[in-house]
Amino acid sequence: MTSQIAKLLANYNRSMNEQMFEAAKKLNSVELAADRGAFFGSIIGTLNHIAVADTIWLHRFAQHSGEFPALAGLSSFERPTSLRQIIASDLLSLETYRQGLDSLIDLWVSELTCEHLAFTLTYANMAGVKSSKNLGAVLQHFFNHQTHHRGQASTLLFQAGIDVGITDLIAYIPDDNI
C-alpha cells in the first residue's frame, strides 16, 4: 500500500459512510433496530460494529512506533471492550461518532509516509493474542473490513426498501489525465 492509496481509501470510506447514514435516515428507529438475522443483528448493530472495529484499530495504530499527532484525537474515543459493544443506540449519535472517526482517519492517513507503511505493527487482538504485521497490509484490512460490513448494511437497507446507491470503489478513483 502507498500513502496515496491510503488517502484514496480514507476518502472512499468517509464518502461511503456518509452515503450509508443518509440512506439509513430514511428508516425509523424501530426499523433500524429490527433484528434482520445479520451477524450483528440489525442495521444499527452493523453500523455500530464498524465504528467499534475502527476505534479498536485506531487505538492499535496509535501504538505504532511512528509519531502521529492526528491520533492524539483518540483521547475522545474510548477503546471498546467488545466487538458487539453499542457505541450509540440512536442513528444521530452514531453518525456524529462516525463523522469524528472519519475526520480522525483522514488526518491520520495524511500523516502516513511510505516508510510508516513499511513498518511492523505489533498489537494484541481482543483475546489478547499478539501479532506483528506490516502496517500497510493491516491498513488494507482496516479499510476492507469497513467495506465488508457496509456491504452487509447495504443489503439490510435494500431489504428494508432503501437503495444506498453506487458503492463501488471504482467510482471514487479519479481518472488519470489522458
Automatic annotation (TrEMBL):
<protein>
    <submittedName>
        <fullName>DinB family protein</fullName>
    </submittedName>
</protein>
<dbReference type="InterPro" id="IPR007837">
    <property type="entry name" value="DinB"/>
</dbReference>
<dbReference type="Pfam" id="PF05163">
    <property type="entry name" value="DinB"/>
</dbReference>
<dbReference type="InterPro" id="IPR034660">
    <property type="entry name" value="DinB/YfiT-like"/>
</dbReference>
<comment type="similarity">
    <text>Belongs to the DinB family.</text>
</comment>
<keyword id="KW-0479">Metal-binding</keyword>
